[in-house]
């Protein structure tokens, strides 16, 4: 157990310092293996790599097609059109709400959070400038839409954090809709109230929007003649409908979305190859990072101390959904990745929680939803890749903006577990 603790702490510290999880994960797994009495070479070449390969085999098509889908939405201008339409709908005075909802719609439509950042940022700059909202609130505003309720809680979201539990609980993407909507209300409503209050306080203190040179560059990346919003919404709607209404496999759903973008963007077909290449390349790095974290979890699972740790987590004297929330949060925080932490949790404890669901009378759908929501809590610690990316894109630092990111992406998602678990405890899913 000491080895597991040291391995987790080392993983968090090194990841926070900016070291790539691709090579630190096997080193940290080596620490776990050494304390667990395993052969180091065998633990790496067999146990670690088996977990790495198994996760890649199961989820690479989703990562690749999801990244390509998002990149084509960005290249075609469809993501820009959708974001512009939503932001205009709310108007200048409600710029924060508009940016949150634009980010959420794109994320709920299946676009990777890393693509959402680049699609929404140029538009957020214009809205924040017009409303004179302090720039330091921009990262938290975008994060509140793309990394919270739209990623983990709204029933039917095609984000991988909502899909991983389906394999372990034999559930669908719409699992526990009432729990998901209740949690979404806490996350979305809480973020809006908090950020509006922060906007007011900062303006009263004399702070306003500050222009950066990169804002001009961002404006230059906007598509001059983007497609009509109705056409732009079709690929997003097709992914959601085919996944949740027709109940097709997510791979087929994403292929349908990609084909629709191509059909409606034939006038830009010549330039699509670079976008396809970029999407595919981006997916490989995301896949390797997540699989590396899962490989670490596979080594943790086979050492003798894990059984004791597992017994402790599963033996928490409370609703088993609480222990599920603790496990998913802690491992997502350790890896700085919602999908990576959730992958470890499900790989290590998914079967046991499925057994608990069968014996306790709590629906597997409830475990699915709690696991998904919990993966989007502590994952947003400072070393999270999406957090670092959005700070770089917006030209801000952790010191300037991380406090607000933490509130909307950690505090409210964790608070949202309260109504979700309460509903499940009285049999409302």
The biggest sheet amounts to: none
Q: Which class best fits the helix and strand makeup?
A: mainly alpha
Mean pLDDT: 90
What fraction of the residues are assigned to beta strands by DSSP?
under 5%
- What is the radius of gyration computed over CA atoms, rounded to a whole number of angstroms? 21 Å
Distance between the termini: 35 Å
Structurally, the number of domains stands at: 1
Helix-residue proportion: over 70%
Total E-strand runs: 0
Outline the low-pLDDT stretches: none
- Order of helix and strand elements from N to C terminus: HHHHHHHHHHHHHHHHHHHH
Gross morphology is: globular
- Count of DSSP H/I helices: 20
What's the helix and strand layout?
Elements: H1 2-16, H2 21-35, H3 40-76, H4 78-90, H5 95-108, H6 113-131, H7 138-146, H8 149-152, H9 160-169, H10 177-204, H11 213-220, H12 229-244, H13 250-264, H14 272-302, H15 304-314, H16 320-335, H17 338-360, H18 364-375, H19 385-394, H20 398-425
């Amino acid at each position: 157990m000491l080895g597991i603790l040291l391995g987790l702490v080392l993983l968090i510290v090194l990841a926070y310092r900016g070291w790539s999880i691709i090579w630190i994960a096997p080193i940290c797994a080596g620490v776990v293996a050494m304390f667990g009495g395993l052969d180091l070479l065998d633990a790496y070449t067999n146990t670690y790599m088996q977990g790495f390969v198994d996760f890649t085999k199961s989820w690479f098509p989703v990562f690749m097609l999801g990244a390509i889908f998002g990149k084509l939405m960005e290249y075609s201008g469809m993501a820009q059109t959708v974001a512009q339409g939503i932001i205009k709908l709310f108007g200048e005075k409600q710029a924060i709400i508009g940016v949150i909802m634009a980010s959420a719609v794109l994320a709920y439509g299946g676009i990777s959070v890393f693509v959402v950042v680049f699609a929404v940022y140029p538009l957020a700059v214009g809205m924040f400038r017009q409303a004179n909202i302090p720039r330091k609130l921009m990262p938290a505003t975008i994060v509140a839409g793309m990394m919270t309720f739209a990623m983990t809680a709204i029933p039917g979201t095609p984000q991988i954090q909502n899909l991983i539990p389906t394999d372990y609980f034999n559930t669908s993407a719409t699992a526990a809709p009432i729990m998901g909507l209740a949690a979404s209300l806490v996350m979305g409503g809480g973020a809006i109230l908090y950020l509006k209050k922060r906007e007011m306080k900062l303006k009263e203190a004399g702070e306003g929007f500050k222009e950066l040179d990169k804002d001009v560059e961002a404006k230059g990346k906007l598509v001059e003649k983007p497609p009509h919003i109705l056409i732009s919404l079709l690929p997003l709607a097709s992914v959601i409908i085919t996944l949740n209404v027709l109940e097709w496999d997510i791979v087929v759903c994403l292929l349908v979305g990609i084909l629709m973008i191509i059909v409606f963007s034939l006038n830009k077909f010549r330039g699509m190859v670079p976008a396809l290449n970029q999407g595919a390349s981006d997916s490989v790095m995301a896949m390797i990072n997540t699989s590396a974290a899962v490989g670490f979890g596979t080594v943790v699972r086979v050492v003798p101390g894990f059984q004791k740790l597992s017994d402790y987590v599963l033996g928490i004297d409370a609703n088993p959904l609480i222990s599920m929330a603790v496990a998913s949060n802690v491992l997502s925080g350790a890896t700085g990745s919602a999908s990576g932490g959730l992958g470890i949790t499900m790989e290590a404890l998914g079967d046991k929680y499925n057994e608990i669901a069968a014996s306790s009378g709590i629906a597997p759908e409830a475990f699915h939803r709690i696991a998904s929501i919990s993966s989007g809590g502590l994952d947003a610690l400072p070393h999270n890749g999406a957090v670092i990316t959005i700070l770089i894109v917006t030209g801000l630092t952790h010191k300037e903006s991380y406090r607000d990111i933490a509130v909307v992406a950690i505090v409210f998602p964790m608070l949202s577990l309260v109504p979700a678990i309460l509903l499940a405890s009285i049999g409302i899913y």
